[in-house]
Amino acid sequence: MxxxxxxxxxxxxxxxxxxxxRSLWKVFGPNADRIVGSPEADLSRAALLESTGCVAAVRDVxxxxxxxxxxxxxxxxxxxxxxxxxxxxxxIEPTAGSVLLNGEDVLTASPARLRELRRTAFSxxxxxxxxxxxxxxxxNIAYSLEINGVKKDARYARANEVIELVGLHGYANxxxxxxxxxxxxxxxxxxxxxxxxxxxxLDEPFSALDPLIRRDxxxxxxxxxxxxxxxxxxxxxxLSEAMKLGDRIAIMRDGAVVQMGTPEELVASPADDYxxxxxxxxxxxxxxxxxxxxxxxxxxxxxxxxxxxxxxxVRDATPVIIGARRPVKVIENGVLVGxxxxxxxLRLIGSDGVDxx
Amino acid sequence: MTTVATVKxxxxxxxVRIGLVVLAWIVLAFVLRGLNTLVLPTSENTPFTxxxxxxxxxxxxxxxxxxxxxxxxxxxxxxVESFIEVIRAVISLPAGNNIIPLVGWLGVVxxxxxxxxxxxxxxxxxxxxxxxxxxxxxxxxxxxxxTLAMTLGAVILSLAVGLPLGVWAGLxxxxxxxxxxxxDLAQILPTLVYLAPLALFFLIGTAAATIATMxxxxxxxxxxxxxxxxxxxxxxxxxxxSMGSTRWQLLTKVQLPMAKHTIALGVNQTMMAALSFVxxxxxxxxxxxxxxxxxxxxIRDVGDGVVAGLAVVFLAIMLDRATTAAVARTGTFVHxxxxxxxxxxxxxxxxxxxxxxxxxxxxxxxxxxxxxxxLVMGDTIASATSAASEWITTNLYFLTTGFREFVTVxxxxxxxxxxxxxxxxxxxxxxxxIGALIGGRKAAIxxxxxxxxxxxxxxxxxxxxxxxxxxxxxxxxxxVGVAVGVLVGRSRRVERWMKxxxxxxxxxxAFVYLVPVLALFGxxxxxxxxxxxxxxxxxxxxxxxxxxxxxxxxxxxxxxxAGSTKAQIITKVQLPASKRSLMLGANQGLIFVLAVVVxxxxxxxxxxxxxxxxxxxxxxxxxxxxxxxLAILFxxxxxxxxxxxxxxxxxxxxxx
Lengths: 357, 656
Ligand SMILES: Nc1ncnc2c1ncn2[C@@H]1O[C@H](COP(=O)(O)OP(=O)(O)OP(=O)(O)O)[C@@H](O)[C@H]1O
Ligand SMILES: [Mg+2]
Prior knowledge:
The complex is a heterodimer.
Chain A: E1 19-28, H1 45-52, E2 55-65, E3 70-75, H2 81-88, E4 96-101, E5 104-105, H3 111-120, E6 122-125, H4 137-141, H5 143-147, H6 152-165, H7 181-194, E7 199-203, H8 211-228, E8 231-236, H9 239-245, E9 248-253, E10 256-261, H10 263-268, H11 273-279, E11 307-309, H12 314-324, E12 328-332, E13 335-340, H13 342-351
Parallel strand pairs in A: 3-8, 3-9, 6-7, 7-8, 11-12
Antiparallel strand pairs in A: 1-2, 1-4, 4-5, 9-10, 12-13
Helix pairs in contact in A: 6-7
Chain B: H1 2-12, H2 14-31, H3 47-62, H4 67-91, H5 105-119, H6 122-137, H7 141-171, H8 173-188, H9 191-202, H10 206-230, H11 234-242, H12 247-280, H13 290-298, H14 302-329, H15 338-364, H16 366-369, H17 378-395, H18 397-420, H19 424-457, H20 460-490, H21 492-507, H22 514-521, H23 525-549, H24 553-561, H25 566-577, H26 579-599, H27 607-617, H28 622-647
Helix pairs in contact in B: 2-19, 3-28, 4-7, 4-10, 5-6, 5-15, 6-14, 7-8, 7-10, 7-12, 8-10, 9-10, 9-28, 10-12, 11-12, 12-14, 13-14, 14-17, 14-22, 17-18, 18-20, 19-28, 20-21, 20-23, 20-26, 21-23, 22-23, 23-26, 24-25, 26-28, 27-28
The complex binds adenosine-5'-triphosphate and magnesium ion (MG).
């Protein structure tokens, strides 16, 4: 189950994916388009900068996002997350590679088609909100509809719907500067939802908010995702946020994806020290399922304990395991795969914060 | 050994090297004085000025024949002239076979009051109306209306050209790169230089004056508009793109609305620049307040000059306050609430009715049409001012003349001797050397080439006379500017006190300073220096104060914690830390001083400015006037390059 650095299936674009990215590059600097495919492409980012003056902000990134999935991209500041997500919508023109959206090639789309995609198929939420200061909340939200020629009544009706959806009732006629940061980002969310896009891109949407508001907003996104089932690409540098929201997580370093997998896979088997460092502060019991600590029954142990499903998070299983006072059966599809005891849970919790596994 | 090392180390310091160059310069200038000074009597032409004169004559001769005139210059002139005439017909020129314009004084006051109320608030509106009324009281109503018409016309035309170009330059790097050299040049070109060439192509009169004004103010509109677009917060713009806006939608729905405030500031700046130029453009036949100012300067009539100058001041304050208040309203995107809006609508309705009544009255009632003569006090003010000026010159003689002679004998004469009485090659080499020390090879080569070109114009000696005045005035401006700037920068209270003075100082046209300066110091070179000082001081104070204020407070706190005295904090922390601002202030000061010192040709300062003015009135010296304009331009570029290199800023121009 170890997540490989680049999965072999990633060589061919997957038409069934909501988004399919292959060998995407973005190089900033003089003669940037000569770098990809040349020997210099293999240099490290620092060496490349030294020898050519170019920055490889995104290097050879490939991944698929399934319909309805929340795909999180994370990495330290400067690792290329923002550049990557902007390449997907061509706010930044990629240097090389391909991006398919529902099977359609985004990078070769004509300017008119690209505008249409932006108006209807995908939308974006920004770290610093990017609201239009001269427009009321409702006109901010209705902007994409307005530029798409939707009549005023229709677009206000739709805007009012999403205003309700994100909990901004009563603020339609306020101006952005009259709202708190959290409320402004609700406007940002509402604006992105207004066109009912297939895919939403969120670039560190909550980094500028304080922790309490951030938690509210994360819950909001989870709720919206639950209700609306949008495909999301979510950028963050906050691991707990990534774990909370992500179906799958890609970790970037110096422009490249170093590991990709479910939260559990990352925590269970970090690909390298960089990833291990990242996940060190995450309590493993909050991420891992009981599969990770299931083991065979040892001689002399009681085999009559209660059953739990193999996909249960350790933290959620803890009351049962401790309450049972004997080994608990771990069941996958009706088949017994192993046992866990409270000692196993304690050992897992105890390994947190010591060193990598 | 150690002493050799220290000497070497000291020699490596730039300031020491510059000091040595200056020392050598002084010694050599003394030894070689009187040689190769290239003195040229005013009435004499050089080969170059003769060529220019012939060129000018042939241009004049071609006006009715050459295609360039028939298809380019003349149509432009006709269009601009009729545009201005339309505005003048409304407020200043007798309309039809009537003796008054379409709208009499009361109507104009009411229109101004209404517009200012509609765009800002009633208090500013009252102020604007009061100031216009005062222009009438001064007996300057018709002149004021002419200046207003010229200014508004030039501003409308300038914005029609400048705003679109500015937006374009804001959106496209290539367009900005094409425009930038012109914009940079326009920043250092003294106003006086524009006049003669334009009069040559567009004839003396309103058209040439308006076009010259436009050439002066369009770069300002372009610069600020482009800056407004470029400095927009990137977030909303990116969001606009990400939602699929077309370029046009992005411009009209995102960028322009967001840039509105800064662009409005640009309109204010454009307007003030246009006003100040329109006044000076009286020299090439612009109607308006500039005419009585020029007339008074020529016959050195302080009283009349002050009356006309006051009207300029009132008009300037009116335009500045009105546009500033209107700009302030664009500062927030939040619109006022329902009740306030209703109240305002009612107010606007009432004001509109009042305006219409006033306009109607001003067309049918004599007292409302022509400013009532019994209210006019211009002559009284003029004679009172003349008397006061007389009193000052006789009784405060020791003060004004004392100071004047102190500066003139103590500093100006020696410097002028050093620059103008020395061989030209010595001066060129020394200035280029200093340029090299301050700005490196490029500044040195620029200085050398341009100074050599000045020698070729034949106006070397006059250039040096002007340069001496410019340098002395700049030094005085910097001394006072730094002292006051530090005070203003350190204390909020002083800043509050000084702000109105600085604001007023920055909005007044350079021309009006000539009158009081003439009253105080008589027609002398020092009058030009004083004028340059008054004109440049506000900007220098402002730049220095900004610099001092921007010194991180942590630095000041650290120094205070270390037990520094106030004086130590100023000299050891705040001034060194704001060195860039000081140099910037010096650069600005130099350029401002140059612009005004040449105008000082009017008040007996001699030099290049005098030649420009003489060239304007004597056809046989027209070539010399044009050459003097060129020499001013070259001198300006040399000074700007060296000072700019000193300030260490290369790609300037985004900041307004
Ligand atoms: N327009 C640009 N020109 C040159 N280099 C750029 C440009 N934009 C980004 N970069 C470089 O690309 C790299 C990745 O930047 P990016 O903004 O994508 O990082 P990030 O992961 O989003 O960081 P953060 O968490 O700080 O937002 C950085 O080294 C940055 O300096
Ligand atoms: Mg980023």
